[in-house]
Prior knowledge:
Layout: H1 3-23, H2 34-45, E1 51-56, H3 63-79, E2 83-88, H4 93-106, E3 118-123, H5 127-136, H6 138-142, E4 169-175, H7 180-191, E5 194-199, H8 204-213, E6 216-221, H9 222-233, H10 238-273
Parallel strand pairs: 1-2, 1-4, 2-3, 4-5, 5-6
Helix pairs in contact: 1-10, 3-4, 3-9, 5-7, 9-10
Amino acid sequence: MSGIVxxxxxxxxxxxxxxxxxxxxxxxxxxxxxxxxQYFEFVQSIxxxxxxxxxxxxxxxxxxxxxxxxxxxxVELWEKGSKIVFWTDQALSDPILVDxxxxxxxxxxxxxxxxxxxxxxxxxxxxxxxxxxxxxNIRFVMGGVDTFGNDLDDLPIMMGVNGGADMRxxxxxxxxxxxxxxxxxxxxxxxxxxxxxxxxxRDLPTITIYLATGQLKGVANGLLGSAExxxxxxxxxxxxxxxxxxxxxxxxxxxxxxLGNVPFLMRRLFKRSS
Length: 274
């Protein structure tokens, strides 16, 4: 059998392992990381009825790993009666945010009223300068209206809310952009907000120092963070399926490596004995 054929067979087995475990998931308990524990505890610690700021910068290519942690955070907040002020820092994030809100509502035990339970302020462009201006004076930057053109002064949720100082608790889904320091500099430091982030695993080195100093209260870190949030909230879904598929694929490759080395080791032992 040629090397090309063997390679195709091995790749096909990997493909079928991934598909099978996504379609027919196997639930195997695994320990929850300290980062996700801190994140979940922060979500639980937010007082009932609080106004919470929530920036969603998720992108189409990061959505598969960050959707669960983002949506489940929304559900947990709304279950305790939080009022959520949404905005995005990426143009492509607006339709994703709309989808996330709809998904969260399907998991809630109560209905939501726009302008009372949440508001969508849309895309804030300009990078860090735009976020700084927005968090200083929302009405000035937004022209006094939300993303749908509704007057902010007509929305009960916006009464007394006009900047970062009025949103004591917050979350930032920064996808894989490594923009977490922006929200430390422009939200946490000047206004004393307590914030946490949802981000790709590769961003973890960027925020470790902020977690150590307490400037970030927690992080839902990548696909693993989403899977762990599903377990902590009892809502097992796509993230756990992906984690199981990746884990079993890794186990399969490890077995192949071990089995592939058996003939080599046997030959060496045979030569020594002879």
